[in-house]
Amino acid sequence: MLAAEPEARAVLRPRQRRDAVPQTRWMHRPEATLWTRAALSAMKDHGTPLVEMVPGDIGYWCPAYRQAGPDQRGAFWVGFLSALAKHESTYRPDAVGGGGLWYGLMQILPSTARLYGCRARSGAALKDGAANLSCAIRIMARTVPRDGVIHAHSTRFKRRWRGVSADWGPMRSVRKRDDIAVWLRQQSYCRPLESLRPRLRPAGFSAVPASKAPGRGGVPG
Asked: pTM value?
């Protein structure tokens, strides 16, 4: 049997139900479903540049992304936002940092929100979780395609931090990036299809009857 082409792999993966939401890191919050659905909606609107591109460093964040379809890619970005929100605001929509400078789940500066054309343009408006996430997606949909990566740093350029790291401080920490990436790679939307399939019993192996199975300590009973 021929190996499935990249375009076919997304079809082979079981489709999500329309009412299903991807796994996120804010699942424990009462607003979780609202935030997730709002972010998914934004991904299908002004977040489409993210879904349509393949970041150069995507293998570190989400091995299955390159062969994924639009819905699965959107799920990754929402999961990514939820994991980054842990380090930005510890999932608190009313968080205010920097002495009154940054607001909400993703700690966005109101002037930055206005610059990128977000609907939430004031500190008070950015305390709305859904609006804050929508704004973050609008920003990332410009910076990630612009730089071609989710994260990069180089002293060769005037703008040293690139991708999401250009605007979100936790992305500049190796420890926090690793924490985000490790969590993402464990999610079904980031695991290659092969890792989700049940593994066949190796040839030549057969089930051991319970009566002949080793007892405690590996000694036959």
From this structure: 0.79
